[in-house]
Design goal:
- With 382 residues, this protein is an alpha/beta fold.
- It folds into two domains: 9-46 and 287-378, Alpha-Beta Complex (Aspartate Aminotransferase, domain 1); 62-283, Aspartate Aminotransferase, domain 2, CATH 3.40.640.10.
- The protein has twelve helices and twelve strands.
- The strands form three sheets. The chain has a seven-stranded mixed beta sheet with strand order 2-8-7-6-5-3-4, sandwiched between helices. A three-stranded antiparallel beta sheet has the order 9-12-11.
- The longest helix has 24 residues, at 286-309.
- The protein is globular and about 55 Å long.
């Protein structure tokens, strides 16, 4: 038979970042030595105490369903963490999800109707666009590339984009793909526009534990933002728990009640023993988090120096573990050449609506980063 596919699924393309990662895996399976700088996954093992907590939870029989929105202990630990960041949070205002991506999906589906306008800050993580399109929303984009990927110099552009027609604004700081951490002045500008035009805001804070010399501010902590911000976060990046699939959202009880409908009819609940490991991650891994963050800082500094030696200037990221490398205008062709000629996998900036760049993940060892830059130079790509 020939399936009659839905119009909504045909609005989107597969994830560009995962497509590149899959191509790198295929080349490696064929025997190629690929330096994969495309994937946003820390190369550190999950902290041992977190793994042991997961095992202990399984041994204790925590393998069945949990309450839909999450086990009480984890929701309370998440609320404690948010309160530490200045957010007025209660456990009943949290939904625990199988990964932060699921949390974002639920938020967009809860807030966006057919034809609603959603404002994105470009470069933007690839799945924002797809999730908005799946909900039937329309995109209005603000380009931060001319401003060194920072939001504060682009507040006038954002003010021109946000209007009474805007339903939702998505903010991601520290940013994927740029590593930019937005200033308090920038976030206050977001607050002023959101309040003026009565706009809801998603604050995607998945990289908030990974920053260098600056402290990211949680948008919901600002005056006037508590009842219009949905904070999304997770465990994949800071705690090196990518495969555990654990995330969460925080918002008002009213929002949680509505989003909980989709949650209960789709994923039911996050994995029981994984949630128990999440409590351990929040409460007892500070030393491991600091160690990983400092390693990422060293790798960032190394890459900046290596590119500088080849005459390439890059915007210095203040967070996450990505940087945007300026390349040819045809960034997709450049990335194809990088993997075919140099066996170095990167992601075209066009995937993030930032043509002329390639995103590099420095969630790889210093030796592999040196190897990658050397290969790109030998192939005359930098």
């Amino acid at each position: 038979m020939s399936y009659d596919f839905s119009e909504r699924i045909q609005r989107v393309e597969p994830s560009a970042t995962l497509a590149i990662s899959n191509l790198a895996a295929e080349k490696e399976a064929e025997g190629a030595d690929v330096v994969d700088l495309s994937v946003g996954a820390p190369d550190f093992p999950t902290p041992e105490n977190v793994t042991e907590a997961g095992k202990a939870a399984m041994d204790a029989g925590h393998t069945g369903y949990t309450s839909t929105n999450g086990v009480p202990g984890l929701k309370e630990a998440i609320a404690d963490k948010l309160r530490d960041g200045g957010v007025d949070a209660e456990a009943d205002e949290v939904i625990v999800t199988p990964g932060a991506k699921q949390a974002l999906y639920e938020v967009v589906q809860t807030l966006v109707d057919e034809g609603d306008e959603v404002v994105l800050l470009d470069p933007a993580w690839v799945s924002y666009e797809a999730q908005v399109k799946l909900a039937g929303g329309d995109l209005n984009r603000v380009d931060l590339a001319p401003h060194g990927f920072q939001l504060e110099p682009a507040l006038d552009d954002l003010a021109a984009a946000v209007s009474e027609d805007t339903e939702l604004l998505i903010v991601n700081s520290p940013s994927n793909p740029t590593g930019a951490v937005y200033t308090d002045a920038a976030l206050e500008g977001v607050r002023d526009l959101a309040v003026e035009h009565d706009v809801a805001v998603i604050s995607d804070e998945i990289y908030e534990r990974i920053s260098y010399g600056v402290e990211p501010t949680s948008l919901a902590s600002l005056d006037g933002m508590a009842d219009r911000t949905v904070t999304v976060n997770g465990f994949s990046k800071a705690y090196s728990m990518t495969g555990w699939r654990l995330g969460y959202l925080h918002a008002t009880e009213e929002f949680v009640s509505e989003a909980g409908k989709l949650h209960s009819h789709s994923v039911s609940c996050a994995t029981n023993f994984v949630q128990r490991a999440g409590i351990e991650a929040l409460e007892n891994t500070e030393e491991a988090v600091v160690e990983m963050r400092e390693a990422f800082r060293g790798r960032r500094d190394l890459l900046i120096d290596l590119f500088e030696e080849h005459g390439v200037d890059v915007a210095v990221p203040d967070g996450a573990f990505y940087m945007m490398l300026p390349v040819d205008a045809d960034d997709e062709a450049w990335c194809e050449a990088a993997i075919e000629q140099a066996n170095v996998a990167t992601v075209p900036g066009s995937a993030f609506n930032a043509p002329g760049y390639a995103r590099i993940s420095y969630a790889a060892s210093e030796d592999r980063l040196r190897e990658a830059v050397e290969r790109l130079a030998d192939a005359d790509l930098i």
